[in-house]
């Protein structure tokens, strides 16, 4: 089953919809790297979604937080496509946007089935909608819930400065934030700032107390140092926790481990679980990928940093602590 014909899905199911073929070969192409909770958690969820199907996995890391230039991403995309050609998987699982742009888009309406998760951009941008061989799971932020959680912790928050690096992947996130902030009439986003260098970011963080009550730390992966190299996002967050006097929020749990005050996170497990169920429907049940809906996961997970609250002098109410996962120490103090 390593060479798929597009018409095969309609005729593949046998014995009440079950296709007897194992082990399946699944190639997992991550935009980022491992070990990391986001990428590893998606794979764990995916395996859970595949249930009892026998699968041989291979993993390819594009590592685009370090390989962040267009040329470097293109090179990693070429390596991934070469691996697809040589290993001939039954299905490719791709996570986050870089893998879609540099890998999956080369296979639209081709024979090999693809399942994606963690995608921020509209799948129409990749020509995925209507493609016969592509299904997937969208990543959409829990913006309103995150701001409500932040305001439970810091009730005085009304003006928020939103921070992004220069990567185009944040544009749809910004658009959704602009839309959803209208649901919270007490809150205004007073700055939509994009930075290329870590120095620019550091200077602005120190200026925000005169302009805003809180900071939304969204795009922080591609700040450059004086030598033009990427500053690891963990270093960005540690500097922020040690130097910023404002409460802050984001949408991902790893940010809270590295000092961000609060988030209602997109669950990496839920993203992978939904993708794994799609892959099982394609491989085991013989369903056509184009018949499977592309939609986001809806379950969020509240997380707060007690360490950051203590540093900011904020006392979090017991009801908030009881309803959220509590990170008691900064990651660098573990």
Provide a short characterization of the protein structure.
The protein has 334 residues and is of the alpha/beta class.
Q: Tell me, rounded to a whole number, the average pLDDT.
A: 93
CATH superfamily of the largest domain: Response regulator
Q: What is the first-to-last residue Cα distance?
A: 47 Å
Number of domains: 2
Counted by DSSP, the helix tally is: 12
The low-pLDDT segments are 1-8, 10-20
CATH structural architecture of the largest domain: 3-Layer(aba) Sandwich
Structural class: alpha/beta
What is CATH's topology name of the largest domain?
Answer: Rossmann fold
Give the ordered list of helices and strands.
HEHEHEHEEHEHEHEHEHEHEEHHE
User: Compute the gyration radius: what is it?
Assistant: 21 Å
| The first-level CATH class name of the largest domain | Alpha Beta
* Number of E-type strands: 13
Helical coverage, percent range: 25-40%
Beta-strand level of the residues, as a percent range? Answer: 15-25%
| Largest sheet features | 7 strands, mixed
Strand order, largest beta sheet: 7-6-8-9-10-12-13
Overall 3D shape? globular
Oligomeric form: single chain
Describe this structure in words.
With 334 residues, the chain is of the alpha/beta class. It has 12 helices and 13 strands. It has helices spanning 8-12, 37-49, 70-87, 97-102, 143-153, 171-180, 198-207, 233-243, 253-257, 268-283, 306-312, 318-322; strands at 24-30, 55-61, 91-95, 114-119, 134-138, 159-165, 188-195, 214-217, 248-250, 262-266, 295-296, 300-305, 325-327. The strands form 2 sheets. Strands 7-6-8-9-10-12-13 form a 7-stranded mixed beta sheet. Strands 2-1-3-4-5-11 form a 6-stranded parallel beta sheet, sandwiched between helices. The radius of gyration is 21 Å and the shape is globular.
């Amino acid at each position: 089953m390593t060479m798929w014909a597009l018409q095969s899905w309609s005729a593949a199911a046998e014995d009440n919809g079950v296709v007897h073929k194992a082990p399946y070969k699944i190639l997992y192409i991550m935009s980022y790297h491992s070990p990391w909770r986001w990428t590893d958690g998606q794979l764990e969820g995916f395996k859970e979604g595949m249930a009892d199907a026998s699968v041989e996995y291979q993993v390819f890391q594009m590592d685009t937080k370090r390989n962040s230039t267009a040329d470097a991403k293109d090179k990693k995309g070429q390596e991934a496509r070469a691996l697809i050609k040589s290993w001939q998987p039954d299905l490719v699982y791709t996570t986050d946007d870089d893998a879609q742009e540099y890998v999956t888009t080369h296979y639209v309406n081709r024979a090999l089935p693809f399942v994606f998760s963690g995608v921020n951009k509209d799948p129409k941008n990749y020509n995925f909608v209507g493609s016969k061989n592509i299904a997937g799971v969208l990543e959409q932020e829990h913006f309103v819930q995150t701001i409500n959680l932040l305001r439970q912790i810091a009730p005085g928050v009304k003006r928020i400065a939103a921070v992004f690096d220069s990567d185009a992947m944040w544009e749809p996130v910004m658009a959704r934030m602009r839309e959803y902030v209208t649901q919270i009439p007490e809150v205004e986003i007073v700055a939509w700032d994009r930075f290329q260098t870590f120095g620019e970011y550091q200077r602005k963080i120190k200026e925000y107390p005169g302009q805003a009550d809180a900071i939304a730390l969204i795009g922080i992966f591609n700040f450059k140092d004086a030598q033009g190299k990427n500053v690891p996002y963990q270093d960005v967050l540690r500097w922020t926790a040690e130097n910023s006097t404002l409460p802050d929020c984001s949408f991902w749990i790893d940010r809270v481990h590295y000092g961000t005050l609060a988030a209602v996170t997109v669950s990496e497990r839920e993203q992978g679980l939904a993708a794994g169920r799609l892959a099982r429907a394609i491989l085991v049940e013989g369903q056509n990928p184009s018949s499977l809906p592309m939609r986001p996961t809806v379950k969020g997970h509240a997380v707060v940093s007690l360490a950051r609250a203590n540093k900011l002098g904020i006392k979090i109410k017991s009801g908030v602590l009881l309803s959220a996962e509590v990170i008691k120490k900064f990651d660098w103090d573990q």
